[in-house]
Amino acid sequence: MNAAADGAGSPNSEPILFPRHRRLRYLTYALVSLAALGLSLSGTDEMMSEYELGVFQGLLAGFAQGVALVLALRRPVPAWALSLTATAFTALTVRAAVDPLPTMNPLPGTTPGPDWPWSTTEVVVQAAVLLLVALRVPTRKALAALAATALTTFVIQGLVGAQRYSSTGTVAVAVCAVAVLIGTALRGRSEARTQLVEQVTITAEERNRRTLLEERSRIARELHDVVAHHMSVISIQAQVAPLLVENPSEELRENLDGIRQNALEALAELRRVLGVLRSENPEYPDDPYALGGAGTGAAPDAPQPTLDRLDALIENTRAAGLDVRGDVRGEVRPLAPGVELSAYRIVQEALSNALRHAPGSTVAVEVTHAPDGLRLFVTNSPPQQAVPPSPGAGHGLLGMRERAAMLGGHLTAGRTFQGGFAVVAFLPRDGVALPEGPHGPDGPDGPDSADGPDAPDRPAAPGTSPSAAPEIIFPTGDETP
Q1: How far apart are CA 315 and CA 124, in angstroms?
Q2: CB atoms within 10 A of CB 296
Q3: What average pLDDT is seen over the chain?
Q4: Whole-prediction pTM value?
Q5: What is the number of alpha carbons within 13 Å of residue 381 lying toward its C-beta?
Q6: Residues contacting residue 309 through CB under 8 Å, at least 6 positions apart
């Protein structure tokens, strides 16, 4: 019943018991149907023996209550109306049987008479139906149904009345009131839990959205410095170019002046953007695990790091207590400045995470230069020491994925089978997503494509060049970290 309340969307929606467990729902229907059959047979026997109704009338009155109980699983309000109507009709029908003639007054000490106006079966069914009504509809409607039940009981027993019977009106109303109270409490608990889940979900989404915006702002701030450097070079070259040419034409001077002026204006706009993006403490200086001396760029005027400073980053991490092994493979090719910066930041964040979450572990950093881009593998073994609470902001993986996606690449991070952690990233060489389709020596027609283009789940070898930058599956072994 509580599961039915949890699945309720609106007061008019159909109740769906156990929406995630179809077999359990069918079992519930079967059990309720069996209970309804038992109550129907019991009610029929009571009507025929106590109320002295005929077979047809007894079956009609008894099975009306059973049908109402089964109907309540899908339509609780009509089921309540059916049960109450059947009870009232039966009470008025048998009233003559419990009213002897005036000359036949019962002797003192004789049996008072049958239960009236509610039989035992009718009380049980009405309470169960009202419980489901309270679970499915707002509280005010459930109370209105209870009030209608009490008013009907008062009219039949108090105004119409009978002479020889055992009063069940007060007991029936009390039992129904308890059922409504229980159903209302369960519904309120379910609604409170649903609202709590919604609030938690909204809070988590807002936190993720804020984290995403913070990371994008941080990335934009760093890339701004790269763009500003190139714009400064363009401005200087445009100013010096006329001095390198003997007798430059006036048209050439004007074009070069225009280039220099546009570069200066772009620099001014970039400075305005930088004033908005640059935070006072962009690199979390309170983080004891920050790799400060290895080039975090915390100083506003510090140059943005590139892969040339990777050795210094690894040495600084070793000094912090990790056994780090670095390996650079492939022919080193020129990369776009944004790719250099993002590659450095991804490795830096991966090493910082290893310091936080895997103290005493062995870390392998592998940078592979391929014709189509750059591959980064950072894996660590399980921690060898107790993991202290992390004081970081928890944005590391999100920031790494944003950097890779911004350049048209991708990043995968997850635990290995041995309990370590692996970060694998691919960044296109020019910072632009590679076109779809086969290309390169290791494409579908190459020597390493025995499985064809439909086998993207095979781990990519460190020195290969897949087509269209396929999804990289990180290695799962820590034997040679």
Answers
A1: 78
A2: 20
A3: 76
A4: 0.47
A5: 14
A6: 294, 295, 344
